[in-house]
Design goal:
single chain; 359 residues; mainly alpha; 14 helices
Length: 359
């Protein structure tokens, strides 16, 4: 009872706000009246009905709200009717997503609930930006960003090829691979820890905005200079994580390998490297985001006429903010896909690790 009390209060508050909005001028609007009646039914379904009924009514209400709430009669941002409707939407959004996340029959995937919450965020973004007539220079509406994505799809595809396929992937593989290889080398040759490890630590302290122009002068304006910057950024996290993982093997397991007269190479392959894989994958996931950010920043200091960083800088100078936001969306989606792919690989490789239990 205690857990459902705040949700019930929020549902009743949403119902009250909707009824007040209808009383202030929506009684002569059939579409708004249908919207209010369906909201009333959804409130009672979420509070008292069985879960599949609540899910169906909530989806119907969401579709109707998305098409009917942004209406000329409600677009007076300073009017009380507008704010009552927005407050009712916000209350039902929070409680509805919370209830749908706890559904058991049928159970929704976590990705579906997250996508639903993301759609709500975009909906309120579009609603408020349109209602207050926010200039595109400050904050474009999601619809404008989507149109910019559609109109500049071919241009942004070339930017993705230039930034991601050429710069990010090559620099990421080289930087992470060198970090792991040097970590294995230092582990086999301990005297290198005093000479090589401090030099490797130096690479993590080099400022990105300082080294990017130097790399452009050394390797030119094309993708090799950006890949070199990414190598510098991703090398040290992979090195440190590899060393930490190699030293994480259990003492009893190491002594057992010694009792079996296992060679150092065999111990590394059978015991220490598998124990280090969770640490290595953590570094790979961190480097995936670092590589994308480094490539975009490096393109600010010199690039051919393509690339996500080049597109952001040039279009921002022209005040084409919808294109800027569309390039940011593309970079975010690509970075999320890379991170998600590494997470799936991590679960397959490190299924035995305690951190993967229950996932």
């Amino acid at each position: 009872m205690h857990k459902t009390y705040p949700g019930s209060l929020a549902l009743l508050f949403a119902l009250m706000l909707t009824l007040l909005a209808l009383c202030q001028g929506g009684q002569n609007d059939p579409l708004l009246l249908v919207h209010g009646l369906l909201l009333v039914g959804t409130v009672f379904a979420l509070g008292f009905a069985r879960q599949p009924v609540a899910l169906a009514l909530f989806i119907l209400w969401t579709l109707l709200a998305a098409t009917q709430v942004i209406r000329p009669s409600l677009m007076d941002a300073g009017g009380s009717q507008f704010w009552l409707a927005v407050a009712a939407l916000a209350c039902l959004c929070v409680v509805g997503v919370q209830r749908l996340a706890t559904l058991t029959r049928p159970a929704l995937p976590a990705q579906a609930v997250a996508a639903l919450f993301g759609l709500w965020v975009l909906y309120f973004w579009q609603l408020l930006v349109s209602a207050f007539a926010v200039p595109q220079v400050l904050l474009p509406a999601p619809v404008d960003i989507a149109l910019a994505l559609y109109d500049n799809a071919r241009l942004l595809t070339g930017d993705v090829v230039q930034t991601v396929v050429k710069s990010v992937l090559i620099g990421y593989l080289l930087g992470s691979g060198l970090g792991i290889a040097v970590g294995l080398l230092i582990d086999r040759l301990p005297f290198l820890q005093r000479g090589l490890l401090p030099l490797a630590n130096l690479t993590s302290t080099i400022p990105l905005v300082g080294v990017a122009p130097i790399m452009v002068m050394w390797f030119g304006f094309d993708w090799p200079s950006k890949a070199a910057v990414i190598v510098l950024v991703t090398f040290f996290p992979a090195l440190v994580s590899t060393l930490a993982g190699l030293s994480a093997a259990n003492t009893l397991e190491s002594e057992l390998m010694y009792c079996y007269a296992a060679t150092p190479g065999r111990t590394l392959w059978v015991l220490r490297l598998p124990s280090a894989m969770p640490f290595i994958f953590n570094a790979l996931k961190v480097n995936a985001t670092l590589a994308m950010i480094s490539a975009i920043v490096a393109e600010y200091f010199g690039s051919p006429t393509a690339g996500l960083g080049f597109r952001i800088s040039t279009e921002a100078a022209r005040m084409h903010m919808s294109i800027v936001w569309s390039a940011i969306v593309v970079a975010s989606v690509v970075g999320s896909l890379m991170y998600g792919l590494l997470v799936r690989c991590d679960r397959r490789v490190n299924f035995w690790h305690p951190s993967m239990r229950g996932k």
